[in-house]
Specification:
three-stranded antiparallel beta sheet, alpha+beta, 108 residues
Length: 108
């Protein structure tokens, strides 16, 4: 920190209408005498959950889209681990099969 003193950086994420409440709390309950704050924005792709058929049975996949273009397909971890335990095969093999099945469908 300042003048090479040891310090701790605390980061708080809150909704804009709660800034005053957190500011008051931090100034009263810590040794700090100043705070910095900023407003951040977030953009995200539209996400849907779709089920695909694999040789191991149905597996849900999270599909991310921007302007109707598929930008990412991610098999649901819980479904894949369930199949892994049932079939006694590797998680990677199940996830690869689910992603391949999802890519083959592509025309959702």
């Amino acid at each position: 920190m300042k003048k090479n003193r040891p310090g701790t950086l605390v980061t708080v994420t809150c909704q804009p209408h709660l800034i005053e409440r957190f500011t008051d709390f931090l100034l009263r309950e810590t040794t700090t005498i100043g705070l910095r704050w900023r407003v951040e924005n977030r953009l995200k792709a539209r996400r849907t959950i779709r089920e695909v058929q694999t040789q191991y049975g149905p597996i849900k996949c999270k599909v991310a889209e921007i302007n109707s273009d598929i930008i990412n397909i991610s098999p649901e971890y819980e479904d894949c681990t369930r199949v892994t335990l049932e079939e006694k095969i590797s998680l990677k093999e199940v996830m690869d099969a689910a992603k391949a099945a999802a890519l083959a469908v592509r025309a959702w």
